[in-house]
UniProtKB/TrEMBL annotation:
Residue stretches of biased makeup (Basic and acidic residues): 12-23
Protein name: Uncharacterized protein
Region (Disordered): 1-23
Composition skew (Polar residues), residue ranges: 1-11
Taxonomic lineage of the native organism: Bacteria, Pseudomonadati, Pseudomonadota, Acidithiobacillia, Acidithiobacillales
């Protein structure tokens, strides 16, 4: 009978449709936008690579879901294709590709030809590491047990110190081998179910034995009067306690990784028996790691894990990797506590977005503060990393020398040292009025107008719900545009203004 093999990431992609685009060279690109939590082994992640003017589709070799985010293993496309690990937020938007001609990075190495072999090599290396770790744990325990026996029979401080250091050395080795084995499990795309549970038993056994030895040393220290011997016992006890923490921590790590495997229920029971899961409290708050009916598994803010029972309908409504607040009823079944969940507060803003030809996004959120000062938060999204640079600026009223029309101008210094200018103008066409933002950057005496599509400022949902607010009143008074009276269809993409900034 064939042995069971555990694999992760059995979820399917969302219903987002594939899109296509023809580039300047006549090649068709097929791509889809999803969230990082939906990434699967075998997908090809679109990313910008050093030395490429366009994006490259990189094959995903491994996906690990954690409470902090999704760890994706991919070949280093700007280097030698060696596997590297990158962390994405669960909700981070990413693009995956179906276009083969994007896959090639190194013309001298066909990544498709070598991908299977590379995966096999990685698996072989991980199996070797697992064998080394398992053997290392066994040897460490032989050394710890021997040193413990001699320490408990010590007659003086010199003997106690020598044997305590041997216990400490064995405990350090034990911790290191446990981490080595856990790394092998974490980085494995496939793992034999029997080996997986055998490794978990090793971690459980190690945690139980280090706890037992620690208790013996505590009892030993209480019974002896020699201060130096007590110090030696405490020294060894500390090393054992550290090894216990490592064993439980790595057990928790593998537990989280395989919550989406076919044997999640068994893994949950195993984790509960070892003490990986904490006792539920009347109210629980954390990130939902998995739904294993009839329980929801949460990662609390302090890093501890807990599983709470929920009714099927309640459990179905929860979203994986989202923060949830749950409250127990009188019989110990948990329900979502909507009142406890604090949704991010949205302030009334006029918001605009501009996309540059190279794909860089610029966002502006304009508002008037309680002191009636016009301000804005501007963010510029790095197209290569997805990270955002956020800037705050205050605006001044100006009158254009060319058009004699009023406008607003604000500025802030960027991380690059360049000075970013944002101007807000009124526009009019066929009795249709609106406001838009324009961007420019200055370095020394050099000005650079920022070209792109978009820039129209629109009310966000919070502003739409207000009958009156400072921001809309200010724009109406200073620029003559009644943003509250605008009832137009979304025409922002049709109002790409290519004119230069006028100061």
């Amino acid at each position: 009978m064939a042995q069971d093999t555990l694999t992760r990431n059995h979820t399917t992609h969302s219903d987002t449709s594939w899109r296509s685009k023809v580039d300047g060279q006549g090649k068709t690109h097929i791509y889809k936008k999803i969230t990082a939590s939906d990434l699967q082994v075998g997908d090809h992640l679109l990313e910008h690579v050093l030395g490429h003017k366009r994006q490259v589709a990189t094959p995903i070799l491994g996906v690990e879901h954690t409470s902090e985010g999704v760890i994706v293993t991919i070949p280093d496309r700007s280097g030698d294709n060696a596997p590297v690990r990158e962390l994405y937020g669960h909700k981070d938007p990413v693009f995956i590709s179906k276009t083969p001609h994007l896959e090639q990075y190194n013309a001298g190495e066909d990544i498709f030809v070598h991908l299977d072999k590379r995966s096999e090599d990685m698996e072989h290396q991980q199996q070797n590491r697992m064998e080394i770790a398992t053997k290392g744990v066994e040897v460490s325990w032989v050394n710890i047990d021997t040193a413990m026996e001699e320490l408990l029979q010590s007659q003086n401080a010199i003997q106690a110190d020598t044997h305590a250091k041997a216990v400490q050395s064995g405990a350090v080795d034990l911790s290191n081998y446990i981490v080595l084995g856990a790394d092998a499990v974490a980085e494995s795309l496939r793992i034999d179910a029997d080996k997986f549970f055998m490794w978990n038993r090793t971690l459980t056994d190690s945690a139980n034995r280090t706890r037992a030895h620690s208790e013996k040393l505590e009892d030993f220290g209480d019974k002896i009067a020699d201060v130096a011997m007590q110090r030696a016992a405490a020294y060894a006890q500390g090393a054992l306690d550290t090894a216990t923490t490592v064993a439980i921590g790595q057990r928790q790590r593998t537990f989280v990784m395989y919550l989406d495997s076919p044997i999640a229920e068994t893994i949950l029971d195993d984790a509960r028996s070892m003490g990986v899961l904490d006792q539920p409290k009347p109210e629980e708050k954390g990130v939902l790691l998995a739904k294993i009916p009839p329980e929801a598994v949460l990662a609390r803010e302090d890093g501890t894990l807990v599983a709470v029972p929920m009714a099927p309908q309640e459990l179905k409504q929860l979203e994986n990797h989202a923060e949830v607040h749950l409250k127990s009823d009188e019989i110990g079944v948990y329900k979502r506590s909507v009142n406890m969940e604090k949704k991010p507060q949205q302030y009334p803003r006029l918001e605009g977005h501009l996309k540059e030809p190279d794909g860089t996004w610029r966002h502006v959120g304009f508002y008037v503060d309680k002191d009636n000062q016009p301000r804005a938060v501007v963010s510029i999204e790095n197209k290569d990393t997805g990270l955002q640079e956020k800037l705050s600026m205050q605006f001044k009223e100006k009158v254009s020398e060319q058009t004699q029309k009023p406008f607003l101008v604000g500025s802030a210094e960027r991380e690059t040292g360049k000075k970013l200018f944002v101007t807000i103008h009124a526009a009019e066409k066929d009795q249709d009025k609106w406001v838009f933002a324009h961007f420019a950057e200055k370095s020394g005496q050099d000005w650079q107008q920022v070209q792109g599509k978009g820039g129209t400022l629109k009310q966000n949902e919070t502003m739409k719900r207000l009958d009156n607010d400072r921001t809309s009143d200010f724009i109406k008074d200073k620029l003559g545009v009644d943003v509250k009276g605008l009832q137009r269809a979304d025409q922002g993409h049709k109002r790409s203004l290519s004119g230069g900034m006028t100061l």
